[in-house]
Amino acid sequence: MSFEEQVDELERTVMSEKPFFSRPGGKIFIIWLILSVIGVLIGFYAPHHLLPAMMSSTGTDVFKTVVVFTVLAAPVAAFVYAVGIYSLIAWRHKGDQDEPPEDGPPMHGNGPMTVVWLVVSSLLVVVLLVWGLSVYMAQQVSHPNTLQIDVTGRQWLWTFKYPGTGVESRTLVLPLDRAVEFNVTSVDVTHGFWPVALGNQVDANPGEVTVIQTTPDKLGKFSVRCSQLCGLYHAFMYSSGSVVTPTQFSQWLQAQGVPPALADRTARIAR
To answer: What are the strands, taking DSSP E only, across 58-209?
Structure first.
């Protein structure tokens, strides 16, 4: 056995006699545990303060996805931060800064740790993939009697048409608990249709129609913004929207000149 191997063997013997939490691995574990708890708490509570109140089934799915992804990613990020923090504190060069540090001992592979890291990472990826696909498929389910709305972006405003009624508006009005299908396009450059509280976002491409859908499930007002940099007044390209009861939606259509019978039928109100 060479001298270097004898030194390595001595170091391993000394380290094995120390309590776990006195070793570098134990200290990194403590830092990881603290950071993981903080990350999980952030995942559960921060979205309630950072995200707008969601007003649709799609928005609720988006909110849950943010929470799940943050909570599951917290332990992984915490491990990376824990190793970095401990390295900066315990393994930094403490001698004369003008002198280069001596070479440290050679690094040794750790088979069990590598296997654990690969298995845990693979499981996380599979879980997140299954979650994402399930949410995506749930949003692709077609609904009978879907309300069609043609959304057109132009520099720098949105217009909303309600086919079959002759109504064209700068304000997006939606009936409560009615499946809505947005047919999104642009007449000039690429815009981004983003009704924030509905949880939808899609590019509005010139000459192309992109279809997205959602079901508003809460009454209230929301904003419609552009999520793509589209020119000088991009920041001012926003409209107001609201989710109202079917009766209020019918009344709004009638105020736009739609006959009462057609307005009630569009709002699905039985007389």
So the answer is: 147-154, 157-162, 167-169, 172-175, 180-186, 191-195, 202-204
Cα distance between residue 224 and residue 174, in whole Å: 13
Identify the residue whose tokens are 């299954």. Answer: 130
Q: Do 177 and 67 share a structural domain?
A: no
Name the strands in the sheet holding 238-244, side by side, starting at the edge strand that comes first in the sequence.
Answer: 172-175, 238-244, 220-226, 191-195, 202-204
**Number of structural domains the chain divides into:** 2
Q: Which helix (H) or strand (E) holds 121?
A: helix 111-139
List the domain range (segments joined by +) for residue 208: 147-266
90-136 pLDDT per residue, tens: 877 666 666 776 776 676 777 787 888 788 888 888 888 888 887 77
- Whether residues 126 and 152 share a domain: the answer is no
pLDDT, tens digit, 9 for 90 and up, residues 128-143: 888 888 777 776 666 6
Task: Please provide the DSSP assignment of 224-240 as one string.
Answer: EEE-S--STTGGG-EEE
Helix (H), strand (E) at residue 111: helix 111-139
* Residue 87, beta-bridge partner list: none
Q: Domain check: are 124 and 36 in the same one?
A: yes
pTM (two decimals): 0.70
Closest CA to 198 of 176, 231, 183, 167: 176
Q: Rounded to whole angstroms, how far apart are CA atoms 175 and 161?
A: 15
- Positive or negative, the CA dihedral 27, 32, 33, 34 is positive
- Which residues partner with 53 through β-bridges? none
